[in-house]
Design brief:
With 198 residues, the chain is an alpha+beta fold. Helix content is 40%, strand content 15%. A hairpin with a 5-residue loop joins strand 3 and strand 4.
Length: 198
């Protein structure tokens, strides 16, 4: 079993930084994170969203994957379906944002300085739809992390323990909780890289 990692201590994103990338007002949490036990319905929610997104964007979809904790069987998670979408150029919002908005998706985050990341909320399911340019290293990172947790029960347990400890704290914004997990995420990713053949 991997050695237990201490909870992360990375400085949280400032409110000014959150406001700079958020479209509309940032949502204040003001309390602990609600973690739910793994729900076997989560993959079906992903597949429903994936089918809808593919029907909207058609050949602009280069990759569409279920990521985050809800994509890992047995792992407690915030009940939010994380999805990563690769498009030809995520900076070219005119190519994909209007049809997504017409279908009821809401663009909430625009981060041109971080992999040209965009984030949508869904019309009727609680999702985070992360959009990157096809080939972005952040996509590979998200998939590597998911795959490591799916394949290694010890890593999954280690991550869940850290999540539960951090989730019980008071957080101004959900982003601060995500920031606090960064050290353990990086440690797991480093072991995933080290375990790759070749």
């Amino acid at each position: 079993m991997p050695e237990e990692e201490p909870p992360a201590t990375r400085a949280p994103t400032t409110e000014a930084e959150l406001r700079a990338v958020t479209i509309g007002e940032p949502i204040v949490l003001g309390g602990p994170i609600d973690l739910a036990e793994y729900d076997p319905a989560w993959p079906a929610l992903f597949h429903r969203e994936a089918a809808r997104i593919c029907s909207i964007l058609v050949d602009r979809v280069r990759l569409l994957e279920h990521v985050g904790s809800t994509s890992v069987p047995g792992l407690a998670a915030k009940p939010v379906i994380d999805i990563v979408l690769a498009v030809p150029d995520s900076a070219d919002e005119a190519a994909y944002v209007p049809p997504m908005e017409t279908a009821g998706y809401v663009l909430r985050i625009r981060e041109p300085d971080w992999h040209e990341h965009r984030l949508f909320k869904g019309p009727d399911t609680t999702i985070n739809l992360h959009v990157f340019t096809d080939g972005s290293p952040e996509i590979e990172r998200m998939l590597a992390f998911r795959n490591r947790l799916r394949a290694d029960p010890d890593e999954r347990l280690l991550y869940e323990r850290a999540k539960r400890e951090l989730a019980a704290r008071e957080w101004s914004y959900v982003q601060h909780y995500a920031d606090a997990k960064s050290d353990i995420v990086e440690a797991i990713l480093e072991r995933a890289r080290a375990a790759r053949p070749g």
